[in-house]
Amino acid sequence: MLVIGLTGPSGAGKGEVSRMLLALGIPVIDADEVYHALLVPPSPCLDAIASAFGKQVLRADGTLDRKALSAIVFSDAAQLQNLNRITHGFVMERIRQELEVLRKKGYAAAAIDAPQLFEAGADADCEITLAVLADRELRLHRIMQRDGLDAESAARRVDAQRSDDFFRRHADYVLENNGAPEMLRPSLLRILEEVGVLRT
In this structure, is residue 198 part of a structural domain? Predict the structure, then answer.
């Protein structure tokens, strides 16, 4: 089974590409969804986060207070690095389990949608890596619309992430997403044909 690593910064359009892959019959494992599922108490991952960042990142019911954690990690690069170091191991263990299930089901290809693909070492599990990029102002607009953030919060999130140059250096393929979603499809199909996932 060919494993595609799908990555890129927030607001660039990984979600659009994921939907296109699913429509083509290629299952997508969303690392963010895996992460959120791993945080449902009782959770060793959540326990590790609370141990590192303090009880103030937990709500009264024991669930994660995402806003409290975000305020810490998106204003301090060292804290964000610490969070990623804690969570990547838990997330990758679950993703590898899900990939094995898909292999046994006989899928020819599957994708991992992971903003931290390279940092987590998940690219080692992939045959190809694909980065989705977009201009900064467009990403800010998308994040504000999608997540209901103000401009300052959206900018902090964008500025805490890797640069486009980082993704261009590390990814095997790059999709530019500065237009309408349907403009992505021809480029994505060409890549999938090139790697043998689709036949023309």
Answer: no
Note down the domain range covering 40. 2-192
- Collect all residues with Cβ–Cβ distance below 8 Å to 6 and sequence separation of at least 6: 14, 17, 18, 21, 28, 111, 112, 113, 114, 117, 129, 130, 132
pTM here? 0.85
What is d(CA 154, CA 46) in angstroms, rounded to the nearest whole number?
25
- Residue 200 in any domain: the answer is no
Nearest to 8 by CA among 152, 159, 90, 129: 129
How many whole angstroms separate alpha carbon 112 and alpha carbon 98? 10
The C-alpha atoms of residue 52 and residue 103 are separated, in whole angstroms, by: 35
pLDDT in tens, 163-189: 999 999 999 999 999 988 788 999 999
Judging by beta carbons within 10 Å of its beta carbon (0-12, 13-18, 19+), is residue 152 exposed, middle or buried?
Answer: exposed
Can you give the pLDDT at residue 17? 96
Residue 197, in any domain of the structure: no
Place of tokens 């429509």: 23
In-domain check, residue 135? yes
Q: How far is CA 163 from the centre of its chain?
A: 15
| pLDDT band at residue 119 under the 50/70/90 scheme | confident
